[in-house]
Amino acid sequence: MKKIFLLFIIFLSQNIFSQEDAWVYFTDKPNAQFYLDNPLEMLSQRAIDRRVAQNISMDITDVPIYQPYLDEIANQSGIEIKAKSKWFNCVHVRGSVESINSLLTLSFVQSVFFADKSLNSSSRLSFSKKKFKPVNKQMDVQVDFNYGTSANQIQMLNGNLLHQQGYTGSGKIIAVMDAGFPQVNVISPFQRIRDNNQILGGYNFVDRNEDFYTRNSHGTLVLSTMAGYVDNQLVGTAPDAQYYLFITEDTNSENPVEESNWVEAAEVADSLGVDVINTSLGYFEYDNPNYSYTYEDLNGTTAFMSRGADMAFSKGMICVTSAGNSGGSSNPYVAVPAEANHNLAVGAVKGDETYASFSSVGPTFDNRIKPDVMAKGQNATVSSTTGVITTANGTSFAGPIMAGMVASFWQSVPQLTNQQVVDFVKQSADRFSNPDEFYGYGIPDFNLALQNALLSLPDNQKQYCFVYPNPFSENLNVINSNNLEEINFSIFNALGQLVRNYTLSKSVNVINANDLERGCYFYKIEGNGISHIGKLIKK
């Protein structure tokens, strides 16, 4: 089964495998104190700021692998280093069983774990079932951007309401882990992010070079659901976010090294200060069947990549991952790393919000709810590598649609931790009070998540009233979210002159401002000791 979750079938080859893959773990990091005393030697300032904002301490997992250990492993006969991980202080190697086992004679090698689990001794952990709290869901649909055929996939999440309030991912960085990004550097749907320097860089971990505008087109389609922009055809869910593009998936083979590539890329993303990682990849069966996972392995702790995803979360990032397209198969469950404990796994629905039959299901082996949430994945609007706006099927697209909205939501409440962001997203979903194995918690309402998040803030940070759309053309909606007895809503022109004044009491108020001239205005909300000033654009 290929990991790029499109609707096709791959038949496994029955080759004889003479080489084995394994992870070699080291005992220590002799240079750790230097890096902990000089954090800018291992992390960017933005990464450090993200940690500080979420009260996350730096520790030895942030320290690079001791280079002499890498050199010694590389010099061993019959051993090839394929990837490395500072988080787990290990390297992914390839060689014969004998060659790999011989590494245990090195004083700094702590242990070896083969991808073929029959070569290892293992034990099982036991888990308990989680309980969930109910929440209510509201919906309201407006349109501001000319979304065209992409309107449905954004409006389904009430993401358009966040866009109307100016929350379009600006200030947030998304790392996209995928199989390739050909033509992103030339086709018109990405012209806007190129012109605004929103592509910050990337790396090709498969070929170990800096050419990431190459290989499989899957990543191009995925990126378009977040960052694409073609007026009245396609608007991504985070059109103003910044992006790193990482190739971790090799579509020519199925091997656990791709898990190690992903973890290494996630470590780079962490060091660069990335906020959200989107992954439209997943792993269950490999070319060598001895490496494949079983349902029992879907426990959140067995797979190297799933442990890496949880580590990424512990560093303050949010991993949004496609659930998989195996819903109609004999192994219908979410794949690695969607099954990870702290991954936001996204299943697929149709445009009418009903379950897409290919979407992978839960629960995990240890009885956790998966997928977590749902987004449109059947007939999702995407850009092809020629720049033509078309549709495609797969949780590959439900995932990034959700990831872009998570980034836009986090922009609106930047003081939240990654755990709080995930919690508010789940709690806004329409099945939160009654999750199941098909829909998880259901389809989130990001406008409801925003209202709940703002009301949860300390009193000195709370916003009791919301005004949208902005920019506006005719009507303005003023939501009295705390049901204050009476509020005064005033509009001033650019010179500070009062042009409108309203006394509002209902929870939702619609103001007809069609007769105002185009331009910039300011509004002021007052009531019950609350005072709030903002800017409005009449278009």
Q: What's the alpha carbon Rg, rounded to whole Å? A: 24 Å
β-strand percent reads 15-25%
Structural class: alpha/beta
Largest sheet, order of strands side by side?
6-9-5-10-11-12-13
Which architecture of the largest domain per CATH?
3-Layer(aba) Sandwich
What is the molecular shape? Answer: elongated
Number of helices: 13
The average pLDDT value, as a whole number, equals 89
CATH class of the largest domain: Alpha Beta
Distance between the termini: 50 Å
Largest sheet: 7 strands, parallel
* Poorly predicted tracts of residues: 5-16, 122-143
Distinctive features:
seven-stranded parallel beta sheet, four-stranded antiparallel beta sheet, Rossmann fold, single chain, Immunoglobulin-like, alpha/beta, 13 helices, elongated, 539 residues
Blueprint of the fold:
Blueprint: E1 20-26, H1 32-37, H2 45-53, H3 67-74, E2 80-85, E3 90-95, H4 97-102, E4 109-114, H5 151-155, H6 159-164, E5 173-178, H7 191-195, E6 199-204, H8 218-227, E7 229-230, E8 234-235, E9 242-247, H9 257-272, E10 276-279, H10 304-314, E11 318-322, E12 344-349, E13 373-376, E14 380-383, E15 389-392, H11 395-412, H12 418-427, H13 446-456, E16 465-468, E17 475-480, E18 487-492, E19 498-504, E20 508-512, E21 519-527, E22 530-538
Helix pairs in contact: 8-11, 9-10, 12-13
